[in-house]
Amino acid sequence: MAKRPAPEGLNFVQYSDGYDDGFKPGLDVQHYMSEIKRRGSETLREIILRNADEGRVEAERQNLENRELRQKKKT
Fold first, then answer.
1. 21-72, pLDDT tens digit by residue?
2. CA-CA distance, 14 to 21, in Å (whole number)?
3. Residue 59 has what pLDDT?
4. DSSP output for 11-42
5. What mean pLDDT do residues 7-13 have?
6. Closest-CA residue to 47 (of 7, 70, 6, 15)
7. How far is CA 31 from each of CA 39, 42, 61, 70, rounded to the nearest angstrom?
8. Contact 64, 34 (CB under 8 A)
9. b/e map 14-25, b = 16+ CB within 10 Å
């Protein structure tokens, strides 16, 4: 199968799920899934903020900051 370039504006990034040696039998599945969610969210946040700093998505940065403020108010 031939590799095709990603559509313009679409980028792929790698992130660590915290289990770089792979998921081993007997490990806590709930913790594993929690780590995927947490680390994925952190990575997405970093990407959005980096792109915003580069002037790509100023509105998205504001949305993210507003969401974070609402989350803090809930806790």
1. 888 888 888 988 888 899 889 988 888 888 877 777 666 667 778 888 888 8
2. 15
3. 65
4. -------S-TT-PPTTS-HHHHHHHHHHHHHH
5. 75
6. 15
7. 12, 16, 29, 25
8. no
9. eeebeeeeeeee
